[in-house]
Design goal:
Layout (H helix, E strand, L loop, with lengths): L6 E5 L7 H13 L3 E6 L12 H14 L4 H17 L7 H12 L4 H20 L2 E2 L2 H4 L10 H13 L4 E2 L4 E3 L5 E3 L5 H11 L4 E6 L20 E3 H9 L11 H4 L5 E5 L8 E4 L12 E14 L9 H11 L9 E2 L2 E7 H4 L3 H12 L3 E14 L9 H11 L6 E4 L5 E7 L3 H12 L5
Parallel strand pairs: 1-2, 1-7, 2-4, 3-4, 7-9, 8-10
Antiparallel strand pairs: 5-6, 9-10, 11-13, 11-14, 12-13, 14-16, 15-16
Helix pairs in contact: 2-3, 2-5, 7-8, 11-13, 14-15
Bound molecules: aspartic acid.
């Protein structure tokens, strides 16, 4: 008999917000023998205006730093855990843990220590609930003295510790510095821990359980009931998340990319849904020509016109140097004959506008500089586009039909995306038009 697939399962905050959610998680874990390593987040929101435990911890620690009384703030956090413990019917107490945390807050153990307790305590409760061993992330997730993450040491420590265990709970989001003090990843960082564990134990799959059934083809606030993407490559995901569609923490991808370990994004509230598979590469043909549509508003562009710019050595570098000297980054640099445009984040650009114009006049002597603001960029992403003729034609026909004026077109050399610049006010109409032509008219 072949062994069951070895899976690392990470559960996000909303999947662990209360006892009811914990029970769903317990059922999911017990449903498959191979779900041996569990990475929990801290309890998230139970309802729309609720506060995540991580944010409660930041708040309580702020009081502690100021020397104010944080006892009640910490008690409110304890109440949330106690309600979970009671709801699960566990004979388990966090009294001693909270006594230690109280003391460390008083000693000002640091904001990272404070924030990390959400995952730490949830790991403790989860371990008591499942009967799995608790492995403190501080022992296996390692940072260097300068605060940078040490992937090799982490992989080594994790591998040694976890492969010796049949089952384990490893809290997400934090690790430790060489002096033993706690350091967290950036917000949403439990996703990273999950992927590190998956790599270290050589899992067959990293399941990331959240409150959506995977990646959607478009933003559901713009498109009604968008289709779920069944398989997406890491590169496609990177392009879409760059354009605003975030389900997984960006850095969660890097440990797994070269390992051939797929990520399956699943919904704790709808475990029967297959979710989205995120893979390095696949011969799985997407159902539609495009995989997804992402986009962001709020760009400004500078277009520089100068006759014969193509004959001028270093023209592009000089333009970008002006931007660099202002400490700004650029998003896109579409160019034409005798024109060159730079798209930048409008908010970042505005305070530097006049200096950039002056800098450009000084360094490249343009014939004309034209500024535009309130622009949006839309990325149409899909590995299927490479094989298909007429994708661009269909996009632009759809946009023309919807009376959207296209300001810029940029097909990445990866042929994985086409980026379109439109005015902010056309953003939603454009996305709907593209979705309609590729998805709805295919049904
Ligand atoms: N609890 C942390 C946060 O709220 C980390 C995580 O959930 O991944 O950002």
């Amino acid at each position: 008999m072949s062994r069951p697939m070895l899976k690392v399962v990470k559960f996000g905050g909303s999947s662990l917000a209360d006892a009811g959610q914990f029970k769903k998680v317990g059922a999911i874990i017990r449903a498959e023998e191979g779900r041996r390593y569990v990475v929990p987040s801290a309890p998230g929101r139970r309802f729309a205006n609720d506060t995540k435990v991580t944010d409660m911890l930041y708040g309580a620690y702020e009081l502690a730093e100021k020397g104010a009384d944080f006892t009640q703030a910490l008690q409110n956090i304890k109440d949330r855990y106690d309600a979970i413990i009671r709801g699960l019917g566990l004979d388990y107490s966090l009294d001693e843990e909270f006594r230690i945390i109280h003391q460390h807050f008083q000693e000002k153990a640091g904001v990272d220590y404070a924030a990390s307790r959400g995952e730490y305590l949830n790991g403790k409760v989860m371990s008591a609930y499942l009967g799995f061993e608790f492995v403190d992330a501080a022992d296996v997730v390692k940072f260097d003295e300068d605060g940078s993450f040490n992937d090799r040491l982490t992989d080594k420590e994790m591998h040694k510790r976890l492969t010796a265990l049949e089952h384990a709970v490893i809290p997400g989001f934090y690790g430790s510095l060489p002096d033993g003090s706690i350091k967290t990843f950036s917000r949403g960082g439990s996703d990273i821990t999950g992927s590190l564990v998956a790599k270290a134990v050589h899992a067959d799959m990293y399941e990331n359980w959240t409150d959506v059934s995977g990646f959607l083809m478009a933003d559901p606030r713009i498109v009604e009931n968008p289709v779920t993407i069944s398989t997406i490559t890491y590169r496609e995901m990177r392009e879409l998340s760059y354009m605003g569609a975030t389900v997984l923490h960006e850095d969660a991808v890097f440990p797994l990319r070269k390992e051939g370990i797929p990520i399956n994004v699943r919904n704790t509230n709808r475990p029967e849904d297959p979710g989205t598979m995120v893979v390095e590469s696949t011969c799985n043909k997407p159902k539609y020509t495009i995989t997804g549509i992402g986009g962001k508003k709020g760009f400004a562009s500078i277009t520089i016109e100068k006759a014969m710019m193509n004959a001028e050595i270093g023209f592009g570098r000089k333009v970008l140097q002006v931007i660099e000297d202002e400490g700004l980054t650029f998003e896109h640099i579409p160019s034409g004959i005798d024109t060159f445009s730079v798209y930048m984040n409008q908010k970042d650009f505005e305070p530097h506008e006049q200096k950039i114009i002056a800098g450009l006049h000084r360094s490249v002597y343009p014939d004309m500089i034209e500024l535009e603001s309130d622009l949006a960029l839309i990325a149409v992403v899909g590995r299927g586009m490479r094989r298909t003729r007429g994708t661009a034609g269909r996009i632009f026909a759809a946009l023309a039909h919807a009376h959207v004026n296209v300001k810029m077109i940029d097909q990445g050399s990866s042929e994985l995306n086409i980026i379109i610049g439109v005015e902010n006010r056309d953003f939603e109409t454009a996305i709907r038009a593209i979705y309609d032509i590729f998805v709805l008219s295919q049904l």
